[in-house]
Automatic annotation (TrEMBL):
SUPFAM superfamilies: Bacterial luciferase-like (SSF51679). GO terms for biological process: alkanesulfonate catabolic process. Transmembrane segments: none annotated. It comes from the Bacteria. Keywords: Flavoprotein, FMN, Monooxygenase, Oxidoreductase. This is LLM class flavin-dependent oxidoreductase. The keyword Oxidoreductase applies. Signal peptide: none annotated. One of its GO terms (molecular function) is alkanesulfonate monooxygenase activity. It comes from Agrobacterium vitis (Rhizobium vitis).
Length: 359
């Protein structure tokens, strides 16, 4: 796999222990425990981690800031929501953290439903949420790259606004990358027009290929005035020493899920979005697609990246990820539980097959 590809992990950031079968104690969400994950990621070759968000979970930006302060290379991919944040407030906070962390901030903008009323936001339909998200992303980018910004849109307004400290442009990175996900027509218009990276769940290769082609064509239709849209994959990777052991463990995990109807896994099953529905429907095409894409977890809710798994030896999973790379995926966010142990296992067994050798 080319050096352009980047590999991130996932930090669930949840007050409840045992997320997706994790083995965790009462202190699983303490700063020391979270720092242990971030430092293990640094030690085993990962670029950083996506940090989950949602009302009723610890504040994602605060967690990211704490972990950036305790590490030197770890890059937090911070999930945030328009409505929870106003564009200027977020642009300022992110610019400050980017300055203090020497350019390590990345941002995942989330438009999906949340407990909006709990933090004073208002519920809108899908079209409202996505037009607001597009406006949010456009304005945040302007605040990071321009001075004395004035803007009056449908959802947000600023007058003569300059963010300090200024974002320091770096090679190939004029500002922190804005990641985005969504499979509806409205979501794809946001991605094609405003995102830096479009994230996909673990769909089969034919579905990802179709969506990449459609988004590229849509970018041209919308006269995108940004660098070409990049693409990422968020998926579970179950890696073991042998193919046989991996499948035995995967089937055992699914059997445990079946006993509890996926309790602790289906954190995306409420108010199922179009992208999540696509995943949940995949098992009707077969339990295994594309050689080692395991769809059985979706029978029990799965939940986001837990709905489909790439299963096998490190060589099997690396080959599968390379097939996605060949379609144009360059950002990979992978994980499995127990999270901390798998950071080390997959860092030792899988990443060397995917990244160029270090000098």
């Amino acid at each position: 796999m080319t050096s352009k590809a980047e590999f991130f992990w996932y930090i669930p950031n949840d007050v409840k222990a045992c997320h997706r079968g994790d083995i965790a104690g009462e202190d699983h969400n303490s700063l020391d425990s979270l720092t242990a994950h971030a430092k293990a990621l640094e030690d085993h070759g990962w670029a950083g981690a996506l940090i989950g968000t949602g009302w009723g979970r610890p504040d994602t930006f605060t967690v990211a800031t704490a972990l950036a302060a305790r590490t030197t290379r770890f890059e937090p991919l911070i999930a945030i929501r328009p409505g929870y944040w106003k564009p200027a407030n977020f642009a300022s906070a992110a610019a400050t953290l980017d300055h203090l962390s020497n350019g390590r901030v990345r941002v995942n903008v989330v438009s999906g439903k949340d407990d909006l009323a709990a933090y004073g936001d208002s519920e809108g339909d899908s079209a409202h949420r996505y037009t607001r998200t597009a406006e949010f992303m456009r304005l945040v980018r302007r605040l990071w790259t321009e001075e004395n910004v004035s803007f009056e849109g449908t959802h947000f307004r600023v007058s003569n606004s300059t963010v300090e400290p200024r974002i320091r442009p770096r090679e190939g990175r004029p500002h922190p990358k804005l990641y985005f996900g969504g499979a509806s027509e409205a979501a794809e218009r946001v991605a094609a027009g405003q995102a830096d990276v479009q994230l996909f769940w673990g769909e089969p290769l034919d579905g990802v290929r179709e969506r990449i082609d459609r988004l590229k064509a849509l970018s041209q239709t919308l006269d995108r005035d940004l660098p070409p849209l990049e693409f990422g994959l968020r998926i579970t990777t179950l890696v073991r020493d042998t193919t046989e052991q991996a499948w035995a463990d995967a089937e055992a995990k699914v059997a445990e899920m079946a006993k509890t109807s996926g309790a602790g896994w289906h954190d995306h099953k409420r108010d199922v979005a179009i992208g999540q529905k696509r995943l949940l429907d995949l098992h009707s095409r077969g339990e295994v697609l594309d050689e080692n894409l395991y769809t059985a977890p979706g029978k029990f809710g799965g939940g986001g990246a837990g709905t489909t798994w790439l299963v096998g030896s490190a060589q099997d999973v690396a080959r599968a990820l390379c097939r996605y790379r060949d379609l144009g995926i360059s950002h990979f966010i992978i994980s499995d539980t127990p999270y901390l142990a798998e950071i080390e296992r997959q860092g030792k067994q899988l990443l060397p097959l995917l990244l160029p050798p270090q000098d």
